[in-house]
Amino acid sequence: MKRGLKRFSDRGGHSTMAELNVTPMLDLAFVLLIIFIITTPLMEGSLEINLPSAAAKTPPPEAGAVKTVEVDRSGAVSLAGRRCTLPELEAELARLHAADPKLAVVVRADRDLRYQQLVDVFDALQRAQVTRLGLMHLDADAPAAKSP
Question: What's the predicted TM-score (pTM) here?
Answer without folding.
Answer: 0.53
